[in-house]
Amino acid sequence: MNPDDALMPRLPIGEWIDAGIDWLKANVSWLFDLFSTVMDFLIGGLTDLLLLAPALVMVVVFALIAFVFRSWKLSLATLIGFAIVISMEQWETMMQTMALVLVATGFAVVIAVPLGILAAVSSTVSAIVKPVMDFMQTMPAFVYLIPAVTFFSIGVVPGVFSTIIFALPPGVRMTELGIRQVDAETVEAGEAFGATRGQILRGIQLPLAVPTIMAGVNQVIMLSLSMAVVAGMVGADGLGKEVVQAISTQNLPLGVEAGLAVVVLAVFLDRLTAAIGNPSGYPTSLIALIRKSLSRRGTDHAAAA
Amino acid sequence: MPPVISAEGLYKVFGRRPERGVRELRSGRSREDLRAQGLTAAVIDASFSVDPGEIFVVMGLSGSGKSTLIRMVNGLLPATDGEIRIGEEVLSRMSPAQVRDVRRRRISMVFQNFALLPHRTVGENAAYGLEISGMNRSDREKKAKEALGMVGLKGWDGYRPSALSGGMKQRVGLARALAAGTDVMLMDEAFSALDPLIRRDMQDQLVDLQQRLDKTILFITHDLNEAMRLGDRIAMMRDGRIEQIGSSEEILNEPANDYVAKFIQDVDRTRVLVAGAVMEQPRETLGIGQGPRTAHKLLRETQNSWLVVLERDRTPAGVIWQDDVAEAVRLGQDEMPWSDVHDMAVVSHDTPVAELFGKSAQHDAPLVVVDDEGRFAGVIPRVTLLTALGVIGEAESSSPAVDPPPGPVGPSTPGDAAQDAPTADDRRGGDAR
């Protein structure tokens, strides 16, 4: 027995939370059911879509996307990496994981960006949001899985739920940071010409914060991916499930192959979203090449005239 | 005409409960006393007014409160105490919507670091103020193009600001303020971030635009030479207080206190002093209709080696020289014996003295000064110019005595007459007729 027990009463925080969760389950189960239905539909639909075309065709599509937004180098790496995943027979699971990541990211961004804007505009909101975000990010990710399973039973839905919670904070933080770090004089210029707060937000702060916000989105995707693997523990289909299975059966070959597929997917998503967030940093992307040739034609035209 | 901007007893104190700071300042506490309480007094009891069509310069070092002051004029910073009037209206009594309306229609602003929107083209930047006030696209694009043309950026409207040099960026900033069509422009250290050559250029352009468009300009700077070049009137600011308000000559010649006097020590007076202030009247001038013989007589009387010849409308026709005149008289010629060696250097009366040296060095003849209508006003022989420079040098230790023009100069010049010389108009009939 610990001698301190006499001095410090046992606070049953865990039980309180448990009671709260039970109450939620008893009273707002319709909300969880709705969430379940929507998520099942979205992730299932997206997975089906990604697996609709033959794997090799999809590889070419992804390689093209890589070229459009970044460079032929990423395009080539995608081609090779994804081909290896196909030969490791992890294509289907990788597409399932990708669907989960994309849906979770989509929801996280839809929540995070407006919240970040609010936090940037109001110091009060910021003061409340900050510790909540700290809490969400530092709480061990596995813990989210427990209530998630209570709410949604096992499957992909508790996975996407905890993924959204875990991946949300950098989106909020980077949005707030991006808006707050917009040059004060530029904002002042907006004010000096009589712009309203809304006009300044839409016309000056948000556009100038886009690179930082996109860096946040990139972070959200990376965190989603790491969480999506953990989500395999509660039965979400995909690479995570393969990894969990490999652990429980001490199957090293399977573990390595599934892990490699995660790496390939991570690199692809990271490089792609980084390029989307900062188009000017990638002059050899197809978009940049097309734009350049258009503007050259434009100046030629102007010179001729 | 009533002033466009008038400020009465303005205070700006930063910190918690700033009104307390104002009360303490009024009861005689110093800025340092306030700082000990965690309050920063940025502007203390400032009063001034800016007249329509005037360039009013607020000059002070960093931390003197000038940037705070300019931001109070358009309400970016609310005054802690005191009143700002824009025309007839009191700024602090307006609703936020009314303040925005004043900013859209009456007061535009140019910023030290340009504050352009990097994600918009130059044209869209120039049109920003009009976009905010709700003008439709085609109209505002047209106005933005006009404004860009005025500042010399015709054809640049499709580019991004990042493609432009610093000077060009600030031209866009200027065009944005011009396009807004306001009668007042606030310029916050607008040229301070530019290198000296470009800065001179922009200053000239600003003066030119101001004269053409009749804008009222409140200009903030820490550069005294810039203040002197631009300002119709200058307010000298130190530690939040306005120490003196006056024209550049008033401030140079009658500094209100030691601080201002010390400050203006380093002013390059040759840039402030103009030709009209150092020129002198020659004893005699020659009418164009008069011949070499009269010229000969006048030259003998004045003991000069040259004589200025005037047209009938008193614009200068040229300068004739002793030897040429003597030669013409000997040969019995009747035409004016123009020199084929020396030509005449004519300068306007408002040319800064600094710009006279080059011309003076190139010509043996004295510089001929003309007034705004191009009529003869006086001459500046080389020695006079050098003497004026000497007086400026002395003035640096003992501040008065830049104006009136320097007195007696060397014996070989007609300078003795400088003080009591009759004015050009008085002498009209007396040209040795």
Automatic annotation (TrEMBL), chain A:
GO terms for molecular function: amine transmembrane transporter activity; carnitine transmembrane transporter activity. Its main location: membrane. It is a multi-pass membrane protein. Residues 94-273 form the ABC transmembrane type-1 domain. It holds the Pfam family BPD_transp_1. The chain crosses the membrane at residues 41-67, 74-91, 97-121, 142-168. GO terms for biological process: choline transport; glycine betaine transport. It is found in: Cell membrane; Membrane. Keywords: Cell membrane, Membrane, Transmembrane, Transmembrane helix, Transport. GO terms for cellular component: ATP-binding cassette (ABC) transporter complex. Gene3D superfamilies: MetI-like. Belongs to the binding-protein-dependent transport system permease family. This is Proline/glycine betaine ABC transporter permease. It comes from Brachybacterium paraconglomeratum.
